């Protein structure tokens, strides 16, 4: 799949360690409006993650919870994102968010695993707690990372996929954060974010 990448997305350089590390890696994203799908595709192609975890709101600019009449448009855009994620060669985990339709997701996923919010999963030597909204979590103390999105609050030991694209290098457990493109919060429906 090839999507034309707008120039403002091409200018962002990625950390050298992310591109040159021989370690297996997890890519964590959340709350993705459809206009950043080309950015996500480009990031996947450059970083080649072994695992991708999306912690909900796959089409965050379609507020399905409040606008259920947009379900058909939502399904079309979810298919577009799933094509990117599932054709990446990575193992994909999806935690449904409040703006997602589990019914649509279950119909459209081919290779991805749908994970119930609050679940603990293991990937290699890491124990991960996954949720969309941080309040869905009550993780045990031995969890290595807590992955979530939904709000601008980040839990202790947490990685918030709304704030950054988070990469976890599996061998070293090092976290590398990549900023979303400028304007992403506006596309999510946040008109003004001061201090971010």
UniProtKB/TrEMBL annotation:
GO MF term list: hydrolase activity
Domain Calcineurin-like phosphoesterase as annotated: residue spans: 25-107
Pfam family, one: Metallophos
Organism superkingdom: Archaea
InterPro entries for this protein: Calcineurin-like_PHP, Metallo-depent_PP-like
Listed name of the protein: Metallophosphoesterase
């Amino acid at each position: 799949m090839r999507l034309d990448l707008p120039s403002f997305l091409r200018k962002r350089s990625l950390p050298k360690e992310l591109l040159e590390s021989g370690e297996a890696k997890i890519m964590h994203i959340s709350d993705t409006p459809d206009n950043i799908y080309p950015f996500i595709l480009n990031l996947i192609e450059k970083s080649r993650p072994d695992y991708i975890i999306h912690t909900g709101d796959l089409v965050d600019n379609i507020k399905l919870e409040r606008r259920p009449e947009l379900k058909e448009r939502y399904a079309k855009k979810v298919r577009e994102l799933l094509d990117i994620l599932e054709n990446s060669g990575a193992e994909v985990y999806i935690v449904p968010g409040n703006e997602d339709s589990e019914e649509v997701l279950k119909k459209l996923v081919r290779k991805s695993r749908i994970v119930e919010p609050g679940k603990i999963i293991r990937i290699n030597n890491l124990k991960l707690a996954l949720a969309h909204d941080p309040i869905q979590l009550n993780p045990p103390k031995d969890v290595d990372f807590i992955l979530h999105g939904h709000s601008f609050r980040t839990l202790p030991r947490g990685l918030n996929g709304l704030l950054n694209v988070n990469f976890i290098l599996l061998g070293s457990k090092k976290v590398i954060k990549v900023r979303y493109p400028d304007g992403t919060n506006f596309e999510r429906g946040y008109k003004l974010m001061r201090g971010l």
